[in-house]
Amino acid sequence: MLVSTPEIQLHGKDTKSDPIYSVHVQPCPAAGIVRNGRRAFRIATGGVSEIRIWLVEEVTGTAAPLVEFRATLERHQAAINVVRFSPDGTVLASGDVDGVILLWKLVNEVDDPKSIKAEDLGFVNLESWTSQKAGRNHGSEVTDLAWSPDGRYLLSSSCDDTNNIYDVEKLDVVKSFSEAKAFVLGVSWHPRSRNVATISADRFLRLYDPFNKETSCGHKIHRFGTGAFAGELLFMGDDNCMARRRLDFSPDGKLLVAPSGAARQSTKADVKTRIACTYIFNVDINRDNKKIGNPVAVLPATAATSLVRFCPKLFTHRQPPANSRSTQDPDIIPMEVDEDAENEPVMMTSDTPKRHKLLLDGIPYRMIFAVATQKQVLFYDTDMDRPFALIDQIHATDLSDLAWSPDGRMLVVSSLDGFCTFVEFAEDELGQVYAPPVRVIPASVVLPAATAEPSTSRG
Length: 459
What we know:
By secondary structure, the chain is mainly β. It has strands at residues 2-4, 12-13, 16-17, 22-25, 33-35, 38-46, 48-57, 66-85, 91-96, 101-109, 127-133, 142-147, 153-158, 163-167, 172-177, 184-189, 196-200, 205-208, 219-221, 248-249, 255-264, 274-282, 297-300, 307-310, 346-347, 368-372, 376-381, 389-392, 399-404, 410-415, 420-424. The radius of gyration is 22 Å and the shape is globular. Residues 1-430 form the CAF1B/HIR1 beta-propeller domain.
């Protein structure tokens, strides 16, 4: 793993760096953009009233990636809280403090960048983008955005306590949710569009059906339902000054990981100390209309967690060493099913490795995700009961966003100090990418004809 923070002023003028509030990587094909024979990715950063587009080029070995300025996008009149590329990478959505959401499209690129004087590089746009306003404004700042898997819809959250779903083609709001009693600080769209998730400062995690006519949520997750923690609140309240609570569905749609948790340190009744944590919920049971119960795992943290992002790739399970004792080896934590996991969440601790049980028995892959506090980034593997890596003290001020590259080998971390850190993994360092078996369709099977109705699946 290579961690680097290029000394490049990504936002600001002269010698003063402006904050970066959000970052996202364009989801190109897995190989990314090939440049000089190396991988490259286009990233967007949101700052004080402007977006900047960059090209990040991988440098093999131990060198930091090369970062090249591409364009400044100017239309917002306020700080930009969030930037998100559409699933196919053709549209960039951005939301600001004034409640405005804009949709940007790349129009053209400079044919011959070498024609630009060296002293002008970094100031002259190498790309042209056009923008459109997405429907009506929110009444307060936009806090998060999430695209539907097919790129036709955009979900927003706001400090006006509401969520909107926009039809991107019609630039209009098609559905709104207004059940939250305090700021809605994060959203995520299920990879197969079964539901959308929102989390707010009123200590509720809510799941909605994005396509039916109902505007009330199907599931409210607020307190532990059963077990030793029964009745206790799951999340931190609005007294905790967290501007972001960005949750994320796993790429297979089976798990939902939510930050800003607060749970008692022990199941013993006399232990009252509450610690910051992140929760893992099994949302796959929702497919059978079952109630989503307690979190299946609790990930303790040294400070409040605010950001979660899953790596887009699936990986094969790690194989234990030939001489390992399967139940005692602390580095290999196989998946098992615990029939009571819905009632008793597993408290994962860094000093007591154990086989945690995420109700994923029989699934031939594992998943990796990153969780951030204001100062740290922790990396988790669903085969293990504790972080496999932690990076700390990489920025002078708070971390603001996380974004994975589409090939799953780079995590970009933005900060309010105006810089970005790039966490790069060597090929196969995270493990072998899982390749699902090819499904052979018999020649006698007739596939259904395509329909004009909008698809709600990832495909």
